[in-house]
Q: What sequence folds into this?
């Protein structure tokens, strides 16, 4: 297989770059080791588009966040991804906190944010009636917003595919092939791809990929645990609420999600393991207690999911690494994209595109980056039943055209069979229960798939024409079912006493 | 298609089926039964074990047989039935929006609505088990569906968390299929399911049941590999020194059921925080007149038989309601849970019914106790009635009869308390 450019990693960064490069007449392949895009850090984070007052403008983090934030409205409109600028409040309790808020405001203003405001007194509680009554001050940033990070990633990848990018799932980069200090290919778990340019967007594993071209940095992930509450609690807060940030993190936040659940978290601690998705008892308590400092009356029940996110922190460095390798030509690192990585993704992709132009000039002058005439900027609107609950006559028209949209598969999130089928056939197709869940929310609700998972599994099996035994939760090795009934008892040969009939 | 009915029942499980039949028997003519699954019976078709009907039919049946008894009669009675139809909204002025493949969206106006949506299983998150999130974690009922309806077994080496009835029944079912059930863990010092299920499903198959134990951690990347298990102290907190690991590929959760009241709550109908079902009077009528609830949507029952019984109460009450044949008491009497009582159903008594001799009150206790008295106390703490029970346990619903003669017009509250005899 051959490509002009191979992107390693299907997170929000890899997908953003893929989409950006799909504007050009180029043969681009994105490889992802998991069975879907958005399987690493892009799936486990707060889903916040930050306003941009935290980081220093002179850092990549600061600049790219500021540049990206205003672009999300159009990007999300084009890709039909929900995005709401609900604004954020950094909440302070003491004089000392107020000082920190003023510093943050000043930093934000240096970064070019004009609409930051320090709010005190009654107005604070008008904005957030359930806020801890001891809160005194808050830094209000109206341009902060909420988004589903995996929906954005999937949409970016879908749009890239529509524009000609190949996305190869379950394809892991094993080695980089180099000739005369130039990239000439990438060996994957599915074979060799010849290419002159590799973009390393491998997230938590970017250091392992970079090591193959002797670029030396080490990723030591920061783990953060989150808790997600039932939709009936989504209105407990109106904004993204942060505590005063520390040097290490923005702290345990409380926010509604774009789907109107209530999200709290993350705590933050460094771990050795890069694939450590385990929540802990101590972490669960820390997050809950932390969030209670902002909102004392958190729900006691109705927790519907807990999850972990790992931030790709580079040891000894407080900024992204974005740039061409100095040792090997044709290799671009986009690494250490921790917070505010999601918020910076559009500008990161553009920056990488700029770097690529330089790299290409150097290594293969005959390869020109020409814009496509037929680049498709937008994704088609995909109607979801949950969005039509107050305009049912419109949904009626959809059901009359296709009865699958009248069959409700997921009761909690109100997802129709038609939507599930669409997810199986979209440009980056869903192949597993979790991939369906991320695309259409079947299994995302309060029963956590108790009702819909047997149904979704059946649809996947019928539609892909494979045995139900091969349907997975999240890729090979996570098959949901073990054997047909009666088969296991034949294998084990266990016999029961006469009075028990099998 | 007809869009106006005297009675619309949401849910075709044992509760809804019993309501439909009993309402018909009491000459309600215009009935629609809505069911989201392909077939009627609710959860019964996947409950292929026996033990159903001992109370109601005085004979032992399997779940599908039990359901079939009702369904067969229903077909004789020309009640309108719509399966594979999901109700998405109920309003207090008794409008229903539902959806299915054939009709699309249905806007139905009812005179009476009966909520019979049943319950759902509590998940891992409801009890917050730390650890990773691999494949192989199922609620017991979902595993039951995979095996008994779809024909596939979800695991080979199993740990069951919770001694709820479905968990114990599934421990047996998996064993019969050749899987190894390594342990059933119960955080409480007693079984939360029926004693007969402990004997027939666990003891008879040598499946160890460990009281005061819970899962403290789930491990595994793509699939469950093992669980850490520990004994708990009096406050139900894990004792770290007792932690041990059990290798397994599957965890079944049987950690309680939650009445499925999203429609109810969205309609603005008041719920009891303990039962998580609507607050009802002795007719199982919610605080919205003409909207009734019964079965597991109201409170979680031990047996389908009791659900059917409750459905019948509602079937008759609906008939009375439609005939406008009811007389309110001068004031409603509240039934209040007292010592060692978690909840009572009904929560209040509203009617004077000529000829009624007694009212059956259902309750669940908080803790097991032996040789007790269940006392009914009036506002001043005077004992109105007292019933001896040899044993009470949270796993088994308790009921007592409240004699009508005790219901003085001035009575405001009756408190039910459990006392050592």
A:
């Amino acid at each position: 297989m051959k490509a002009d450019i191979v992107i390693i990693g299907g997170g929000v960064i890899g997908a953003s770059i893929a989409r950006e490069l799909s504007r050009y007449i180029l043969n681009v392949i994105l490889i992802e080791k998991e069975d879907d895009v958005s399987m690493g850090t892009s799936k486990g984070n707060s889903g916040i588009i930050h306003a941009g007052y935290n980081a220093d403008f002179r850092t990549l983090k600061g600049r790219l966040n500021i540049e990206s934030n205003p672009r999300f409205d159009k990007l999300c409109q084009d890709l039909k991804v929900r995005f709401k600028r609900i604004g954020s409040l950094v909440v302070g309790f003491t004089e000392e906190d107020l000082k920190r808020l003023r510093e943050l405001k000043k930093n934000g203003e240096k970064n070019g944010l004009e609409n930051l405001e320090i709010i005190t007194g009654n107005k604070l509680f008008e904005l957030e009636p359930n806020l801890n009554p001891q809160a005194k001050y808050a830094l209000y940033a109206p341009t902060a917003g909420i988004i589903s990070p995996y929906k954005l990633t999937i949409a970016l990848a879908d749009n890239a595919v529509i524009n000609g990018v190949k996305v190869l799932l379950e394809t892991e980069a094993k080695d980089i092939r180099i000739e005369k200090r130039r990239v000439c290919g990438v060996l994957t778990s599915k074979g060799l791809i010849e290419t002159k340019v590799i973009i390393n967007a491998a997230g938590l594993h970017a250091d392992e990929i970079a090591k193959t071209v002797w670029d030396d940095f080490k990723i030591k992930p920061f783990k953060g645990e989150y808790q997600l509450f039932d939709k009936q609690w989504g209105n407990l807060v109106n904004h993204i609420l942060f505590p005063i940030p520390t040097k290490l993190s923005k702290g345990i936040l409380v926010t509604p999600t774009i789907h109107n659940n209530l999200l709290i978290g993350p705590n933050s601690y460094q771990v050795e393991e890069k694939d450590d998705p385990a929540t802990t008892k101590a972490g669960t308590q820390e997050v809950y207690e932390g969030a209670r400092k902002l909102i004392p009356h958190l729900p006691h029940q109705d927790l519907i999911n807990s999850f972990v996110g790992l931030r790709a922190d580079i040891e000894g460095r407080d900024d992204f690494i974005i740039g061409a390798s100095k040792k090997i030509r044709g290799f671009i690192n986009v690494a250490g994209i921790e917070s505010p990585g999601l918020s910076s993704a559009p500008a990161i992709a553009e920056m990488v595109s700029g770097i690529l132009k330089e790299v290409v000039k150097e290594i293969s002058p005959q390869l020109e980056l020409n814009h496509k005439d037929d680049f498709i900027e937008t994704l088609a609107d995909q109607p979801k039943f949950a969005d039509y609950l107050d305009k049912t006559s419109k949904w009626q028209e959809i059901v009359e055209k296709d009865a699958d949209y009248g069959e409700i598969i997921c009761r909690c999130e109100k997802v129709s069979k038609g939507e599930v089928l669409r997810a199986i056939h979209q440009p980056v197709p869903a192949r597993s229960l979790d991939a369906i869940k991320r695309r259409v929310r079947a299994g995302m609700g309060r029963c956590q798939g108790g009702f819909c998972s047997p149904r979704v599994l059946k649809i996947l099996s019928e539609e892909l024409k494979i045995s139900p035994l091969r349907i997975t939760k999240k890729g090979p090795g996570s098959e949901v079912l073990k054997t047909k009934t009666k088969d296991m008892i034949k294998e084990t040969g266990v016999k029961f006493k006469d009075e028990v009939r099998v | 298609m007809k869009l106006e009915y005297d009675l619309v029942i949401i849910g075709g499980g044992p509760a809804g089926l019993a309501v439909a039949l009993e309402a018909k028997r009491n000459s309600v003519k215009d009935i629609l039964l809505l069911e989201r699954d392909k077939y009627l019976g609710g959860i019964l078709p996947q409950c292929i074990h026996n033990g159903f009907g001992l109370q109601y039919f005085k004979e032992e049946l399997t779940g599908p047989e039990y359901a079939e008894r009702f369904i067969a009669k229903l077909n004789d009675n020309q009640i309108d039935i719509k399966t594979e139809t999901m109700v998405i909204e109920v309003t207090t002025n008794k409008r229903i929006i539902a959806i299915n493949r054939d009709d699309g969206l249905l806007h139905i106006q009812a005179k009476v609505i009966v909520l019979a949506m049943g319950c759902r299983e509590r998940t891992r998150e409801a009890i917050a088990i730390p650890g990773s999130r691999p494949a192989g974690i199922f609620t017991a009922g979902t595993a039951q569906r995979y095996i008994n309806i779809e024909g596939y077994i979800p695991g080979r080496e199993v740990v069951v968390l919770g001694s709820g009835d479905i968990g114990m029944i599934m421990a047996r079912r998996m064993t019969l299929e050749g899987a190894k059930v390594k342990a059933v863990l119960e955080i409480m010092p007693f079984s939360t399911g029926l004693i007969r299920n402990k004997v027939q499903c666990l003891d008879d198959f040598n499946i160890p049941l460990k009281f005061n134990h819970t899962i403290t951690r789930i491990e595994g990347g793509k699939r469950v590999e093992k669980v850490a298990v520990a004994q708990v102290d009096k406050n139900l907190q894990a004792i770290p020194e007792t932690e041990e690991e059990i290798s397994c590929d599957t965890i079944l959760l049987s950690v309680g059921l939650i009445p499925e009241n999203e429609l109810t709550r969205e309609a603005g109908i008041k719920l009891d925080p303990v039962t998580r079902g609507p607050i009802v009077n002795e007719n199982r009528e919610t605080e919205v007149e003409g909207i009734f609830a019964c079965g597991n949507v109201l409170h979680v029952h031990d047996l389908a038989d009791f659900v059917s019984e409750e459905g019948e109460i509602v079937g008759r009450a609906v008939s009375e309601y439609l005939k406008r044949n009811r007389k309110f008491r001068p004031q409603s009497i509240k039934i209040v849970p007292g010592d060692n009582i978690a909840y009572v159903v009904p929560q209040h008594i509203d009617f004077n019914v000529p000829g009624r001799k007694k009212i059956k009150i259902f309750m669940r206790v908080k803790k097991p106790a032996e040789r007790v008295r269940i006392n009914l106390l009036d506002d001043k703490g005077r004992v109105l009635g007292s019933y001896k029970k040899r044993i009470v346990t949270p796993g088994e619903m308790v009921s007592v009869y409240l004699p009508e003669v005790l219901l003085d017009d001035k009575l405001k509250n009756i408190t039910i308390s459990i006392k050592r005899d």
